[in-house]
Amino acid sequence: MSLLFYLISNNLFLSDPDEDPDVMEQDEQILEILKDTGWDDFKHLKRLIPVRMPTAESIAERIFCAAVRQDDFDLVQKMLQAGMNPDEVVIENSFGEVDGSLFTALQHVSVTSRCASSINLLINHGADVNFSLKADGKTALFYAIEAINVVSIRVLLAQHATVTPECVYSATLILPNCKEDLSWIEDIIEIYLDQDVAMQGDAKAALLDALTHRHKHIVERFLAKEVNLNGLLTTRAPDGENECQTTLLGLAAEYGDAEIVRLLLHLSFHEDPSLLCPPYVQPLVFAAKRGSIDICKILVGSNADIQSADEGEKTLLERTLPRGNLALCQLLIDHGAKIDRQPRETHQRPSALMVAVQHGLMDIVDLLINSGARLNDLFEVGPRTVLGAAVGTGDEELIQKLYNAGARWTFAIRKIGSLKIAMLIKEKGILSKLLNHRGPQLLVEAILARDDDLAWFLLQNNAHEERNKTGPRTRTPLWAAIESDQLGFVVPLLDLGAKVTDTALAKAIKTKSTVLQILLAAFTGSAPTAVTTAVLEASMIDLELLRKAKVDLRGAPLFLRGHWSCNPVKSTPYGNSRAFQSVLEIAAWKADAVIFKYILEWASALQVTWSPTSVACALTLAILEQKTYHISELIRLGSDLDVDIAADVPPSLWDFDVSEPETYSPLQAAVRTQQLQIVRDLLDLKRADVNYMGEGQFRKTPLQHAVKLGNMEIINILLEQGADINAPPAHDSGATALQIAAIQGFIGIARMLLDLGADVNQKPAKKDGRTALMGAAEHGRIDMLHMLLDEGAEITGEYECYFREAVELAEGKGHCAAARLLKRSRDRVRTPDHAQAPRHHRRLRLLGPTQGCGQGCRHCGLAYTLYKLTKRYPSERDPL
């Protein structure tokens, strides 16, 4: 029982530290042990719950949470009768039905229980029906509504629960399935509208989802009560990327209900639109994007400001054109909508005419031309001109229409839509100049489109001749023929002098093309990308063909999208991002032992000398993949061990979103994968730097990695080799060894680090960091908090801000006992007696398992016992 209480009070789990614990399974285990030992009776609970000590409070809170989550209301009732305050316990979300992660007992039960007695039980024992953890209006009633728990809703309303705007907002999300659903939704709205707070506050937010689901009767009820709905709301901008501000009328226009738009036409706001941030977007803009001619008619009929609506990132016509609504385009033009933007040398966005041409909207093209649309603007992306876009569609009528209207032929053509169009271009006398400018690219597009007639026509007109400088990633006609399996073009292209490239070989290997040998016969030089592709495809046949053709495997392979079966790791030596430098790295990462040995033999025959950086990256990859043969071969080669490689799936210390992966040197990788012998070899044979941290957002020293894993054997090896206990944390989300031990709850490791001189007050990482005290508080480690405070963790002066954050972190994660422990410690600091008390001295290693330190530290005996146990056992995943 002592072991169970220790685990409960310190929020420790018998699970892999990298895996999320199964809270419901732990709840079942806790309640089962309580019943087996008789600790679930009132007599024991009456002894436990009134004790105002952090350990007892933490245990009581955890048992209460388990009982609530497991619907054990017999135990809940006993604990309430024994003095448990239901509003002081924060329960983790275990059902996933509603938003949010932490709840009061009443909020939790209001979601999960279909029994009125369980809700009344909590309320009768002091649960505040209107309490919310964040004072955000998300009360028990809100969560009951969100879970559509009608029983809970009725009980809470009977208990006079306040209907907040958030409750109404949630209710209007629901599509009624029956009269009963509709009845309680109407009750919620009526109660809300009858409350004085509704008349005084901002009721607009409550209507958002009524607009989304076009609940006209709800809008009418709000208007009938003369609720003030003027003003602005923040919503997603029409471009879908940024935020903007608009009125409820704007949202009604966005959601497309003309009747609701008519109801809300009177709404207004008093701010200057030009000064608003995020910017104001007019209702007409939303209506145009939606393509609703009825709503646009209503808005322009009520004198909507079309000129202002046209000043956004897109004009009204540009927004509505993808819908292809000719009548709406005519309506907007008739009321003064812009046909074109102001003239510029080049335009970033396609014009309305360009959009109409690309979508093949012939009637709208006619309308825009007749309305005076400019025909020869240049655009930065896509087809450079409207005539170029028309050529790409292959529509001869459209091309002729634009040409007759004044569009000029240019060389800004990215694609020719058909043989007939190509012949028309030739008739105009510009084909040869066009092919001289973009011939290979046009031929590539024709081959990829499988338009054989057009491709042969272009080939006969010398489109294959490359007149401009190309790079290794340039898509060539030969590459396109292999990519699209148009193998009939391969030999003619080779006969015409097409150059076989590394990427063409790689594509042939990837597609298992039968022309690989033909291509190899015309190839000389280095092809690391082709060799890499063969390695990733695990094709010994292709590797032998490449070697037989005397292909050189030296050089850096290119990452070609679609060639590699999974995202590669990116290496970052010395913090400078780079791609793979050699085939060796790919082989170490992905090849089996047979292929890896073949690559080494091939390289030896060519007398290839791998760079130390490349060998180090290959070694790190092999260690991460735990490939014994690869490691043994690579460790013999000369390498620079102070080099990082970034893993594609970082094991995050906390559950933060990550923008870049975690980096590893060979030693860090060996520690991370807990390969004890490799760690020894790297330290003893290769003299790896035991304190090398490297670069990257989540970099750690080897010791910090080992502490994260709780592996005492590796920790001891690193310490024997001179690992720096107080190595600083990384700038982003980093942590010292002691801070990590505090976060993980490894009290024995923390005790050892403190004895060896770890700084209990070392400051956190600049970004998303934690002091040791903050980390222990955030994760509810009661005994760790005691030990850190006894060891002199500062909570005043320059450290007071960290203390406050520690309290906030504990409360934010639902560890109320930990938060109270910190607050009481702060209160004791303010007393005169505490100022004269000597600081706890570091002599635990001299004490026996049951000795005290003489300074009032009641936990030093337990800490020392755990320290001795962790010296006996290699891992602290199970603290005992």
TrEMBL record:
ANK repeats lie at residues 283-311, 348-376, 698-730, 733-765, 768-800. SMART domains: ANK. Keywords: ANK repeat, Repeat. It holds the Pfam family Ank. InterPro entries: Ankyrin_rpt (IPR002110), Ankyrin_rpt-contain_sf (IPR036770). This is Uncharacterized protein. It comes from Penicillium salamii.
